[in-house]
Design goal:
The complex is a heterodimer. Chain A is mainly α. Helices cover about 75% and strands about 0% of the residues of chain A. Chain B has helices at about 10-30, 40-55, 60-65, 70-90, 115-150; strands spanning about 100-105, 110-115. The chains are: A mainly alpha, B mainly alpha.
């Protein structure tokens, strides 16, 4: 049945695409809404099955010869993500019904959104790595389409292109990793790979596999230094930002790391890369978030930082850390989704998202403001039992402290990790406060706003309310979701079921003191924000990831352009030189290494004086052609070579060839004369002496090479000639004495057939070229 | 072309020589199987005969007496060759299988007839068509140009 769940959004996208225009009485969103809701309910009904430790799976053949099966399975981790995708998907669709006016291209929007939903479900449910990759790229493409939804805006297309380039770069690296994995583990199924864990860990390809795979995960999850696409993706409509860029797609990278963590977890390389990058992203993202002035910009950097935190916990790899990571994935989806929706509401009701122009909105929109306060406090980890963010942050501190007990590198760095965690959290606190206080409290400047602010319609508030209810309920009663949802998910990542009871109040332990420190320093910094904010301007732009992205993209464009311009000059002379030089170099290298050059004189015919004489005349004529100053003279001198050749044919007893050569040469010369009469006089060469010298060297070496090849190939005949057969059978089988002609029309008649076809084509080509060319052009 | 002088000697010799060349060309075609020659050289020779006519009489008069479209001749030649080759299918042998035999014909006596001859005829016609098409296209174009410039 899993196939059908994944197929459903795709089918719906098809139907919506075809029929939505027909139903123009109601908003298209209402047609879409049942799909994620139904899927959400179906997935919820599977929860008891998972709680028993079983998994749901189904398989169908796709490309059996390559061992690529559409095999899907639903374990705890997939379940968590499926519920997020369908649950938040439903809320986002509901929100978008009120957010997007019916003047927008709604059909496009919902088709892209359903495509995204289906492919995201495919990513989290796939067992076959190549199917996983297929859906992975589908999410990149549908995300690209959604970011560029307002395609007439430059910023949108820029953001869409940037996210496409970054995520597809990562996706392709991931494909490389998956191919290497499937070679090393000799299977395409993720579960079989986990079973063959030791093969992968002991293989020489371990490091490349890990790095390529993590490149995929880091680009998708906007980790340092690939985070810069996420802030630019904020040009998408707000429902998209809430759905893709906070709750689902950016977590695909986390899913990937979690999914493969049973293979890699516990190795030092995995820890150092994943935790290291995660912590850097955490600190950098939260540090840069307070610099933003756009509400969605703040939220984008906040997402980056929170994803970094989860990534760091996945890297720790201990049971507590994984549970905390899973818990935070859930929590982040709830509060970040609601915050995005509220940012959208503020934008919708005031006409701006610029925090410098907003302020004091609490009196106008009390419900939104309350929701925003709860969401932001949860994000900041304010130590109150009603915020789920606090619980997971506490667990983060706790897991960072417990690393000392683990062996290997993790133990070595153990002292530093809590400090980094606290630093990152302090800034998280600062931007959360900056976000809500800057928007909803302080001075009112309604005169600067385009619209008079007022509370949003209830339909728009419904989705953030539901999410905030989750924040509070999970904050109060975390064990409500622990048993059915978080424990199976943790079990899927670590391999055994955790027995951790989530509770708000442990005791006065170190993590709690860390939280207090965060709140203390954070409050101080938040109050003095205006004083130290100018410091941001001191950071040179060179260090930003945006700057690097631009430098790389521009550099690639410039260098490929200059490389192309370097050799694609349009000069035929240059192309011809390149072709000849390549021919000479490659052939001579080949002959040198295969020792292909041999001379044997066993098989040579005696040379007679007439042959020498004709050959000499031909050589002189050929050389003389170069010095001719007039075309006609050159043509006639070339004619000498042709007639000399037909004489040679006579000497070598080839009468048919001699006759043909004679007539063809005559006609060629006549044609040359006809055509060349139109051309201007030959210019006396004004080329520099060095260019002439290069031409001379290329020409001589080509000639020398071909001579050597001819001699060598004559001297090293490997097989008897088949000519004897023709001589013997020409009369018997072909009924003719003229062996040449019998070969041409009988033994090898097919060649002749196509040669006359070539002639016919050439004639028709010339005919068409002359008769049907544009007469206008000719007169110019 | 109007200013052409009356090349009486050229035209008279052409009248005779054209037939000699044509006869030689046909001879080349027929004798090709046993002596140097064949469809290709024969065809080039034949084209030479036609060319001589065009050179001495000009384009329009020759068009009038010999209303041949040489484009069609290419098609005819290729068709002859293909049909000859395909004829072998009738007897259930591979494409382009040839056969020959000796027959007593009236006037000629014992004669060798080979299907390869028909194939060579295709080559012959194609080569004439090709050569003439190329040269006439270029020549007619030059004349049109001269006329345009004259006008």
């Amino acid at each position: 049945m899993l196939h059908f769940y994944i197929l459903l959004p795709f089918l719906a996208a098809l139907l919506i695409g075809m029929f939505a225009k027909k139903v123009n009485r109601i908003h298209t969103g209402w047609l879409v809404l049942p799909i994620p809701v139904v899927l959400f309910i179906i997935f919820c009904l599977k929860l008891p099955v998972l709680a028993e430790g079983k998994i749901v799976q189904s398989t169908a053949d796709w490309i059996p010869s390559l061992d690529i099966q559409l095999s899907f399975y639903l374990d705890g981790l997939s379940m968590l993500f499926s519920l997020l995708i369908t649950g938040i998907g439903s809320l986002v669709v509901l929100y978008s019904i009120f957010y997007l006016s019916r003047k927008e291209q709604l059909t496009h929007f919902y088709v892209y959104l359903l495509l995204f939903m289906g492919s995201m479900l495919g990513v989290v449910l796939s067992d076959n790595v190549f199917v996983l990759y297929t859906f992975w790229e589908f999410t990149s493409i549908s995300s690209f389409l959604l970011i560029g939804f307002w395609f007439y805006r430059d910023r949108s297309t820029y953001g869409a292109q940037k996210s496409m380039l970054v995520t597809v770069f990562g996706g392709l690296s991931m494909l490389g990793a998956l191919i290497l994995l499937s070679i090393t583990a000799e299977t395409n199924s993720i579960r079989m790979m986990i079973a063959n864990r030791s093969d992968i860990l002991e293989s020489d390809l371990f490091i490349p596999i890990l790095i390529l795979l993590l490149l995929g995960a880091f680009t998708k999850s906007a980790q340092f230094p690939f985070h810069s696409w996420l802030p630019d993706a904020m040009e998408a409509p707000t429902p998209v930002s809430a759905y893709l860029h906070s709750a689902t797609m950016v977590k695909a990278g986390l899913y990937l790391v979690a999914r493969f963590s049973l293979i890699f977890s516990g190795t030092d390389t995995f820890f150092i890369i994943v935790s290291g990058i995660g912590l850097i992203t955490l600190c950098l993202g939260s540090f840069l978030a307070s610099r933003q002035t756009d509400l969605k910009g703040i939220l984008a950097y906040s997402t980056i930082s929170q994803l970094g935190m989860i990534m760091a916990m996945l890297g720790f790899g201990t049971g507590t850390a994984i549970l905390a990571a899973i818990f935070h994935i859930f929590n982040h989806a709830t509060f970040k989704g609601s915050l995005f929706m509220i940012a959208g509401i503020v934008d919708h009701e005031t006409g701006t998202r610029d925090i410098r122009r907003l302020g004091g909105l609490y009196t106008f929109m009390p419900i939104s403001a309350t929701l925003a306060f709860i969401g932001a406090f949860s994000m900041a980890g304010v130590p109150l039992p009603i915020f789920n963010g606090f619980l997971s942050k506490e667990m983060f501190f706790d897991s960072s402290l417990k690393l000392e007990q683990t062996a290997g590198l993790a133990g070595t760095f153990a002292e530093w990790i809590p400090i980094l965690a606290v630093v990152g959290s302090i800034f998280t606190f600062v931007y959360s406060m900056y976000l809500v206080f800057g928007t909803f409290l302080g001075k009112q400047n309604t005169d600067q706003l385009e619209k008079k602010p007022h509370e949003a319609p209830i339909g728009m508030l419904l989705s953030p309310i539901v999410l905030i209810v989750f924040v509070v309920v999970v904050g109060l009663l975390p064990n409500l979701i622990n048993e059915p949802l978080l424990a199976p998910a943790t079990a899927a990542v670590t391999g055994d079921l955790p027995h951790i009871h989530l509770a708000f109040w442990h005791s006065l332990n170190t993590p709690f003191y860390m939280s207090l420190t965060v709140v203390g320093i954070g409050t101080l910094l938040a109050f003095t924000l205006k004083k130290w904010q100018p410091l941001y301007n001191r950071i040179p732009g060179k260090f930003s990831s945006d700057h690097w992205y631009q430098t790389i993209v521009n550099g690639l464009l410039r260098s490929s352009k200059s490389i192309t311009e370097f050799y694609m000059t349009g000069s035929l002379r240059l192309y011809f030189s390149i072709i000849l030089v390549f021919l000479v170099v490659s052939t001579s290298i080949f002959m040198y290494f295969t020792e292909g050059f041999t001379i044997s004189v066993d098989d040579l015919a005696p040379i007679t004086w007439p042959e020498v004489l004709v050959g000499f005349v031909m050589a002189v004529a050929a050389i003389a052609t170069i010095w001719m100053n007039q075309r006609i003279a050159a043509i006639i001198v070339i004619g000498v070579v042709g007639y000399g050749l037909s004489l040679l044919f006579v000497f070598f007893r080839a009468p048919d060839l001699a006759l043909t050569q004679l007539i063809v040469e005559t006609i060629t010369v006549a044609l040359f004369l006809l055509c060349f009469a139109h051309l201007p006089k030959l210019k006396t060469s004004d080329k520099a002496i060095s260019e002439k010298l290069i031409d001379f060297i290329i020409a001589v070496s080509t000639g020398a090479l071909l001579t050597i090849v001819a001699i060598a190939s004559h001297s090293s005949k490997s097989f008897e000639s088949i000519a004897k057969y023709f001589v013997d059978n020409s009369y018997k089988l072909g009924g003719g004495d003229n062996i040449v002609n019998v070969i041409l029309v009988d033994f090898r008649g097919l060649d002749t057939l196509f040669e006359i076809a070539v002639l016919g084509l050439a004639a028709l080509g010339i005919f068409a070229m002359i008769k049907y060319r544009d007469k206008g052009d000719m007169n110019q | 072309m109007q200013s052409r002088s009356n090349d009486l000697i050229l035209k008279t010799t052409t009248n005779i020589i054209v037939f000699v060349i044509l006869a030689f060309s046909v001879n080349m075609l027929f004798s090709g199987h046993n002596a140097p020659g064949g469809g290709f050289i024969g065809g080039l020779m034949g084209a030479g005969a036609f060319l001589l006519l065009y050179v001495s009489y000009g384009l329009k008069p020759v068009h009038r007496i010999l209303p041949i479209n040489f484009n069609y001749m290419i098609a005819a030649g290729l068709l002859t060759a293909v049909i000859t080759g395909a004829g072998s299918f009738v007897l259930g042998v591979p494409f382009l299988s040839h056969t020959f035999g000796y027959f007593y014909l009236p006037l000629l006596g014992k004669t060798e007839l080979a299907t390869a001859m028909l194939f060579d005829l295709g080559v012959y016609l194609t080569v004439i068509g090709v050569t003439m098409t190329i040269i006439l296209s270029i020549a007619e174009d030059k004349i049109e140009k001269v006329e345009e410039e004259g006008n």
